[in-house]
Amino acid sequence: MGNDFDLYRLSEEHDMLRETVRALAEAKITPFAAAVDEEARFPQEALEALVAADLQAVHVPESYGGAGADALATVIVIEEVARACGSSSLIPAVNKLGSLPVILSGSEELKKKYLAPLARGEAMFSYCLSEPDAGSDAAGMKTRAVRDGDFWVLNGVKRWITNAGVSEYYTVMAVTDPEKRSKGISAFVVEKSDEGVSFGAPEKKLGIKGSPTREVYLDNVRIPADRMIGAEGTGFATAMKTLDHTRITIAAQAIGIAQGALDYAKGYVQERKQFGKPIADFQGVQFMLADMAMKLEAARQLTYAAAAKSERVDSDLTFFGAAAKCFASDVAMEVTTDAVQLLGGYGYTRDYPVERMMRDAKITQIYEGTNQVQRIVMARNLP
Ligand SMILES: Cc1cc2nc3c(=O)[nH]c(=O)nc-3n(C[C@H](O)[C@H](O)[C@H](O)COP(=O)(O)OP(=O)(O)OC[C@H]3O[C@@H](n4cnc5c(N)ncnc54)[C@H](O)[C@@H]3O)c2cc1C
């Protein structure tokens, strides 16, 4: 039956990791979070702090120079960074999203070449699936890759690419056989410095303003054939398999943002006085906080269970990945909105962090598949 004392709780290593990341985030990321949002600029301070502590891509296996953190540890890192700054949490999250196709399906040479610089903090990795006319219907993409001897030539436009322009490496899904729809899509590693790669203007967004979101233009980008990830025609399957794992990191981002908002609101209601006493004394306020904490904990437990399934690659991972992302992001939207409510008029201003957290939370219901798409995925993979 195993050791009763270890039944259903995090290991000491996971608890210690949380403490470390929380301390780092509070000291080096929180102080810049408001400015990063206000100025819509990349959180360079966060990147430097994460790289200095080897936390920018903890998922990279030890055999490729990484920390070899398990899926739960990766979730904890993202959660704690997101508690301080949603934009900054996309550094570890998208480094995993961009590189996981290589880890799951890439050749030994690709892994060696691209994972080591990521683990050293010398390069970031982005993931290019979406296009202007292919969002939820990602298999309807138009970006083409055509074979030319020992090379592939890529042409097309990828849209909404997180950390585009900052990342050195890009996993790009492109059509290699238009007859076969999803089975005619292949994945490639494209480098920022490849001739013919360029970027659109940063999108002007509601939230996660510190995380650059840009179009990626591929104009006759000629890359060696060995940059293909896995076999020809397997790119879409790899892209979807990747999302099974990384939707859990979006759930982590969502619960981190929500925890940041709850923590702030919890402190505020004890200080703010109306009717001669702290508003925390009103049962109506207490009930709101209780509901927020209850929902958030349920989301966290589902996310951690999903992370364990990701680590073990359980057969019900697809359901759990979608469920964790969908549930945690809906909870994050509710909790952050309630946090704004608990601060009253002050919550509605940029003088307090909770409106930023509410704006940042919204994206978690949209990317890596909207929550409608998650429900489609869950319905097709009911446990
Ligand atoms: C800030 C940001 C960062 C992003 N980062 C990345 C990235 O790094 N890499 C990447 O590849 N993509 C990225 N995306 C793209 C994101 O994954 C897509 O925006 C998302 O998948 C939705 O696609 P769409 O925007 O085209 O919406 P659409 O697919 O046009 O959806 C519009 C609405 O229709 C609904 N809908 C669509 N189809 C159905 C259906 N069958 N049933 C029910 N409802 C449906 C959707 O749920 C949504 O509410 C990012 C997006 C944003 C905004």
TrEMBL record:
It holds the Pfam family Acyl-CoA_dh_N. Residues 11-122 form the Acyl-CoA dehydrogenase/oxidase N-terminal domain. Belongs to the acyl-CoA dehydrogenase family. Residues 127-221 form the Acyl-CoA oxidase/dehydrogenase middle domain. Its cofactor is FAD. The keyword Flavoprotein applies. Residues 233-382 form the Acyl-CoA dehydrogenase/oxidase C-terminal domain. Keywords: FAD, Flavoprotein, Oxidoreductase. PANTHER family: ACYL-COA DEHYDROGENASE, ISOVALERYL-COA DEHYDROGENASE, MITOCHONDRIAL-RELATED. This is Acyl-CoA dehydrogenase family protein. SUPFAM superfamilies: Acyl-CoA dehydrogenase C-terminal domain-like, Acyl-CoA dehydrogenase NM domain-like.
